[in-house]
């Protein structure tokens, strides 16, 4: 049964720990049991903010789709489904050309091989410029939300995995979700933070040799 837009229906998809692919603070991400092209995200707990995350992401995705059409560098959402672990959001699974799950910037920094810092800074910078040029309102620019997908020509493509940000604004009155100049200022601040976090976590993981 394919995913439907709106409320989940039909027999629940069976998800279990063997299918677990990644975890964020709010959701766990599973391989779709019937399709390697898809993932299913479910709430990681019973807190309201966790239970609402899928709805916020779907809303965020639909907002981007209305405003920009189908964007090349974001993972696409297909709708909500019932699962044995609660309501799930079905999204494209981001894989490299050889079929392995694409690693996030965080995964690259924490991989056993020494990551190429200048490559990570360059691709993150490229992604931030893309947001700026197209005026895309994405703000959750954290290291685990950006996958680097290796393509057939060996070039990496950044893909944003987590679109709930616009509707997950913790400001008391979320002006920056609606006022363009505040949104742009926030995005530029978050872009600078992304680059400095890449440097920070890289230095923690791979400290320069003592003189
Ligand atoms: N479309 C996808 N394809 C492959 N892996 C994914 C995909 N979406 C998410 N993941 C993996 O699952 C992890 C958690 O996903 P996601 O960021 O959606 O969860 P979250 O709990 O909403 O995040 P946050 O902690 O930022 O609130 C990601 O860091 C990534 O490792
Ligand atoms: Mg996330």
Provide an overview of this structure:
This protein has 211 residues and is α+β, with helices and mostly antiparallel strands. It folds into 2 domains: 17-92, Phosphorylase Kinase, domain 1 (2-Layer Sandwich), CATH 3.30.200.20; 103-205. The chain has 4 helices and 8 strands, in the order βββαβββααββα. It has helices spanning 48-68, 105-109, 117-133, 180-205, and strands at 20-23, 27-31, 38-43, 77-83, 86-92, 103-104, 146-150, 156-160. The strands form 2 sheets. It has a 5-stranded antiparallel β-sheet, covered by helices on one side. Strand 7 (146-150) and strand 8 form a beta hairpin. Helix 3 (117-133) packs antiparallel against helix 4 (180-205). The radius of gyration is 18 Å and the shape is globular. Mean pLDDT is 91; it is low at 1-5. The site of magnesium ion (MG) has 4 residues, from loops.
Brief characterization of the structure:
By secondary structure, the protein is of the alpha+beta class. The chain has helices at 48-68, 105-109, 117-133, 180-205; strands spanning 20-23, 27-31, 38-43, 77-83, 86-92, 103-104, 146-150, 156-160. It folds into two domains: 17-92, 2-Layer Sandwich (Phosphorylase Kinase, domain 1), CATH 3.30.200.20; 103-205.
Structural class assignment: alpha+beta
Rounded mean pLDDT is 91
Bound small molecules, which ones?
adenosine-5'-triphosphate, magnesium ion
Cα end-to-end separation: 61 Å
Total number of β-strand segments? 8
Give the neighbour order of strands across the main sheet.
1-2-3-5-4
Number of helices: 4
Q: State the domain count.
A: 2
The major β-sheet equals: 5 strands, antiparallel
* Overall outline: globular
- Element-by-element helix/strand order: EEEHEEEHHEEH
Estimated share of beta-strand residues: 15-25%
Share of helix among residues? 25-40%
pLDDT below 50 for ≥5 consecutive residues: which ranges?
1-5
Q: Please tell me how large the radius of gyration is.
A: 18 Å
């Amino acid at each position: 049964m394919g995913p439907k837009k709106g409320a989940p229906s039909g027999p629940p998809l069976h998800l279990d720990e063997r299918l677990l692919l990644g975890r964020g603070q709010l959701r766990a991400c599973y391989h779709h049991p019937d399709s390697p092209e898809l993932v299913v995200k479910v709430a990681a707990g019973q807190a309201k903010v966790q239970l609402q995350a899928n709805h916020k992401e779907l809303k965020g995705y639909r907002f981007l789709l209305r405003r920009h059409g189908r964007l090349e560098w974001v993972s696409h959402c297909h709708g909500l489904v019932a699962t044995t672990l609660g309501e799930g959001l079905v999204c494209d699974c981001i894989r490299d050309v050889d079929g392995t799950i694409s690693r996030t910037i965080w995964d690259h920094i924490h991989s056993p091989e020494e990551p190429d810092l200048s490559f990570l800074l360059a691709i993150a910078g490229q992604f931030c410029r893309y947001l700026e040029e197209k005026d895309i309102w994405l703000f959750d620019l954290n290291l685990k939300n950006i996958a680097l997908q290796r393509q057939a020509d060996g070039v990496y493509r950044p893909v944003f995995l987590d679109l709930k940000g616009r509707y997950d604004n913790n400001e008391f009155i979320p002006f920056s979700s609606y006022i363009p100049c505040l949104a742009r200022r926030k995005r530029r601040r978050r872009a600078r933070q992304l680059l400095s976090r890449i440097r920070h976590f890289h230095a923690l993981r791979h400290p320069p040799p003592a003189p």
